[in-house]
């Protein structure tokens, strides 16, 4: 089975789906205005996705993850539960109006961006086929030991290590490069090798389980899955079953573990205390999940806690921020200005202010975090933050201008996302940034994210081969590899797959 990498969706089928959802919602008692708004949102999102080029372009990927994870999954699961779509919302009419206005503005940004963006990505030919394996191993090696090597510089390493931490996406990009290399080298019969497995395990344990991070747990699998889809690798039945089992375990047990475990983290925890906390919560995963549901059961979109489905929608959290905005709490352009100022390097502005906007919004809403909590950040979609900034001016002017800048930037840098590791890395980041990065997070992605992307590309090309030498030895090959460098190669159906 090959997982599709859609370039477009059939509008007629989308229309049938939207009408079917509309009828189901009406049968379940959803208000007419809300059902109509949901149908319009789905149709406009499909048009925007196709206009952007589907998942082959950064703009299309953004439209996909935004529309799916902010609205569509939530309202569809609400219909599955048999609940009226507007129930448990404080201001459903304004919510759906803003979503429809937002996706329409996003469509406009897509249309303009396609006219001024480069067709071919600037980073397209950074890495040759013969360089990919050593680049993969070198990125993984330095991604693991880089902070330690920088610390050897002594007192001068503080700012360097801080900058490296912001730019260090070398392990994810090393996994992506390794998967692309293995699929191409094997003619489509294998997708994994030992460096990939070790790197994935390292990220999953240390950046996922140990850090109570959902993104850390899902990132290594995403970095394998995206090249598999982009290169049309044929998955075996065992691999498909394993993927479903992993997704079930992560969302049913490990997402509640990550959310619940964060409440016990203290600033001065020792390594042994952190390890003891992790062990205690993982020893009884069912108890941890039940404790999580009890703690986070209030104020959800659904009538009863739904586990990981509560995390696959932003309608309920956006509704709270939209509601306090209509009560007069309009923040202005602070999210934009603070995010732009944050791009100034620390060595040029050592005391630059640091705004935790997610925490600020949670205190404005009330009841989402304790009064003493000044660190926990609550995620909101770009739509609700845009409305919180300047109401409809934020939704129809500020947000589309930011989207336009992002679409032009990353479409011009990456081009067809399937053809390069950097494009697939952007795709992995957008799966997180598009639904829950808000407008401020999108500006951060355009500044620090671009720096990280360029750093990874140039490091993989010029520096990674040297860091692969201690593991692989010197490169003594006299001729370049003849691996076909195609965005969508047809795998050889013969042979076994790893």
Characterise the protein shown here.
The chain is mostly helical and 498 residues long. The protein contains 19 helices and no strands. Helix 9 packs across helix 18. The two termini are 15 Å apart. The C terminus is likely disordered.
Question: What's a concise summary of this model?
Answer:
By secondary structure, this protein is an all-alpha fold.
Q: Low-confidence parts, pLDDT < 50 over ≥5 residues?
A: 478-498
Estimate the mean pLDDT confidence: 88
If helices are DSSP runs of H or I spanning 4 or more residues, what is the number of helices? Answer: 19
| Shape verdict | globular
Number of strands: 0
Largest sheet: none
End-to-end Cα distance, whole Å, is 15 Å
Strand/helix succession: HHHHHHHHHHHHHHHHHHH
Query: What is the radius of gyration computed over CA atoms, rounded to a whole number of angstroms?
Result: 23 Å
β-strand amount: under 5%
Structural class: mainly alpha
Q: State the helical fraction.
A: 55-70%
Keywords for this structure?
mainly alpha; 498 residues; 0% strand; 19 helices; disordered C terminus
């Amino acid at each position: 089975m090959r997982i599709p990498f859609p370039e477009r969706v059939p509008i007629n089928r989308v229309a049938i789906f939207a009408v079917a959802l509309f009828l189901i919602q009406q049968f379940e008692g959803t208000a007419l205005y809300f059902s109509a708004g949901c149908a319009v949102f789905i149709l406009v999102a499909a048009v925007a996705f196709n206009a952007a080029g589907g998942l082959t372009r950064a703009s299309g990927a953004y439209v996909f993850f935004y529309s799916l994870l902010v609205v569509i999954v939530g309202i569809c699961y609400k219909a599955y539960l048999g609940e009226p779509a507007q129930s448990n919302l404080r201001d459903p009419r304004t919510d759906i109006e803003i979503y429809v206005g937002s996706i329409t503005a996003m469509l406009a940004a897509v249309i303009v961006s396609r006219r001024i963006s480069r067709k071919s990505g600037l980073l397209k030919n950074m890495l040759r086929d013969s360089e990919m394996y050593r680049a993969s191993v070198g990125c993984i090696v330095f991604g693991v030991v880089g902070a330690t090597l920088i610390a050897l510089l002594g007192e001068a390493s503080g700012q360097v290590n801080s900058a490296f931490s912001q730019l260090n996406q070398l392990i994810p990009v090393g996994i992506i490069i390794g998967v692309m290399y293995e699929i191409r080298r094997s003619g489509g019969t294998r997708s994994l090798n030992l460096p990939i497995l070790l790197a994935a395990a390292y990220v999953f344990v240390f950046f996922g389980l140990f850090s109570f991070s959902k993104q850390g747990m899902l990132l290594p699998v995403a970095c394998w899955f995206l090249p598999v889809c982009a290169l049309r690798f044929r998955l075996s039945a065992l691999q498909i079953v394993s993927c479903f089992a992993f997704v079930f375990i992560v969302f049913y047990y490990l997402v509640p573990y990550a959310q619940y475990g964060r409440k016990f983290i203290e600033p001065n925890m020792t390594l042994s205390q952190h390890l003891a906390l992790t062990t205690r919560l993982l020893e009884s995963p069912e108890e941890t999940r039940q404790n999580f549901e009890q703690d986070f059961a209030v104020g959800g979109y659904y009538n009863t806690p739904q586990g990981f489905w509560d995390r696959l929608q932003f309608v309920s959290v956006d509704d709270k921020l939209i509601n306090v905005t209509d009560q007069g709490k309009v923040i202005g352009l602070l999210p934009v200005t603070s995010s732009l100022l944050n791009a100034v390097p620390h060595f040029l502005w050592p005391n630059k202010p640091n705004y935790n906007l997610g925490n600020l919004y949670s205190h404005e809403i009330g009841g989402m975090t304790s009064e003493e909590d000044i660190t926990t950040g609550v995620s909101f979609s770009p739509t609700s933050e845009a409305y919180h900034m300047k109401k409809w001016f934020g939704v129809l002017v500020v947000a589309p201008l930011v989207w336009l800048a992002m679409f032009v930037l990353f479409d011009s840098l990456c081009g067809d996302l399937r053809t390069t590791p950097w494009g697939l890395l952007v795709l992995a980041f957008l799966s997180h940034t598009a639904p829950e990065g808000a407008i401020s997070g999108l500006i951060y992605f355009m500044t620090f994210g671009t720096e990280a992307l360029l750093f990874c590309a140039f490091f993989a090309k010029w520096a990674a081969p040297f860091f692969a030498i201690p593991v692989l030895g010197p490169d003594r090959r006299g001729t370049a590899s003849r691996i076909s460098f195609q965005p969508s190669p047809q795998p050889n159906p013969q042979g076994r797959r790893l």
